[in-house]
From TrEMBL:
Membership in a protein family: Belongs to the binding-protein-dependent transport system permease family.
Chain segments carrying region Disordered: 143-223
Localisation per UniProt entry: Cell membrane
Record-linked PANTHER family: BLL4140 PROTEIN, DIACETYLCHITOBIOSE UPTAKE SYSTEM PERMEASE PROTEIN DASB
Transport listed as a keyword: yes
Biased composition (Pro residues): 175-188
Name of this protein: ABC transporter permease subunit
Domain of life: Bacteria
Bias kind Low complexity: ranges: 189-223
Transmembrane region(s): 66-86, 98-119, 344-363, 384-405, 443-463
Keywords from the named record: Cell membrane, Membrane, Transmembrane, Transmembrane helix, Transport
Membrane topology designation: Multi-pass membrane protein
Source species of the chain: Streptomyces halobius
Amino acid sequence: MGARPWVAAAFLLPALVLLGALVGYPIVFSVYRSLFDVSGNGFVGLGNYGEMFSDDAIRTALKNNVIWVVVAPTVSTALGLIFAVLTERIRWGTAFKLVVFMPMAISMLAAGIIFRLVYDQDPERGVANAVWVSVHDTFAEPAPFPGAGPRPNADLKPSGGGAFTTKSAVRAAPSIPPATPSAPPAAPDSPASVVAPTDPAFPASPATPTDPASPVTPASPADLPLVAVQPDDVRDARSAAVAQPRPGSITGTVWLDFTRGGGGRPNVIDANEKALAGVKVEAVKDGRVVASATTAEDGTYTLPADKADGARLRLPAANFAALYNGVDWLGPALVTPAIIGSYVWMWTGFAMVLIAAGLAGVPRELLEAARVDGAGEWQVFRRITVPLLAPVLVVVLVTLMINVLKIFDLVYIIARGSSIRSANVLALQLFQSSFGTDVDEGLGSAIAVFLLLLVLPVMYVNLRRIRKERRR
C-alpha cells in the first residue's frame, strides 16, 4: 500500500463520495443555512441560535433530552446487566434472552403503535390501565352512583370536592310527652259539677299549645332528591318509600327524582321512582361529622336526634366519584416517563446481549476464588463482575446515549394531541421547525447543528475508548 497509494484511494473513493454526499454536505449546508432567516436570503448570524434558547417549546425539548440521556441509557444498561448475570444461573436462560431480545426485531414505528395501545386510557383497550384498574378495584370500593347530583333548585348544593350539602339545617321531631291522667269526676253535689250555662258572650276557650294534652306535629322528613343516575345503577332498585317522621329522630329518603316517561313532580316522591340504596348521609356541624347513616333498600335513612339536630346534611363525594378509568399515561405529566418505558422495553435486550458476551469472557477462576475466600454473591457481583465488565458497560452506555440523543419516532407516534408538546425532544422539534406548520428552515438548521454538538462529546469518548482497546 505504501508503494501504490492510488490503489487504496481507488477502493476508498466510492465510500468517501457516499459519505460526503450523505453526511459531509448536509452538515456543511446546515451550518450555512442556520445563519440565515426564514426566507434564506437575509443573513441573521447567530440570531437563530438565540431564538432557539428563548423559545419555550425548544427549552422543553432540551429539558426532556436531558431526562432521556440520564434515565433511558442508565435503566436499560442496569436491566441488561441484571438479566445477563441472572440468566447464567437458570436452565432456560437462552429462552429468556430470546424473549428479552425479541423487541429489537420490531421497528420503532411498530413499537410506537404497540405502546400507544398499551397506554390507552380505556381499560378495555389499554393493557397498562387494565392491570392498574384491576389492582385499584381490588382494594377500593366503587362509588354506588357515579356522576349523580342534586336538581339545580334543590336544597342540596355543591360543597367542594364532589360532595353536596344542604343549605338549611335539619331539626328533629320533638318527643311527645305521655298524657297526664284525667281528674276524677266530681261529686254530683259539688260546685265543680255544676255546668255553666252557655252564654254567647262568653265562648269556651280553645286548648292552648302549652297544654300537655294537645297534639304535637313531628318534623317533616329531610328528603334528598338526586338526578343524573345511570340507568344500570338503578335497574334492580326498589321503589322509593316516604320516610315516616319519628319522635327524637331525623328521617328522610334519598331517591332518583325522575319518572320514566315524564309526568313526575320535582322534589316529590312519585310512584315508581327508584330508591337509592347504599348512599352515605352525614350530619355536619361546624365542619365536623357528628352522625352518619346509610340508606336502606327503600332509600330511607335515620339519624339520631341528640347528635344531628341543628346540623346540615351532606352527601360525601365517595357516593358519586366517577368510575376509575386508570392512569392517564399519555397525559402531560406522565407522557415522557411512559415513552422512556417503551424505549427501555426495546433496548434492554440489546444491552443484555452485549453484556452477556462480555460476561462470557470473565475468568471463572476469579469468581470461584472469591467465593472460596468467603465473599458473598453480592460482593462477587459488585467487586469482581462489575469492574471486569466496565469496558462493556461503557460501550453499551455510550451507544445508548448516542441513540437517545436522536430519539424521534417513538415520541412522534406515542405522544398524542397536546401531550406532544410536553413530550417534545430536540429531534422532534427539528422536524417540526423544518417541515411542520410554521416552517423555519433557519431555526431547524440551528437545532440540527446544536444536536450535532451534543453528540460530538459522546462520540469523542467512544473513539478514545476504541483507541485504548486497540493499544491493548
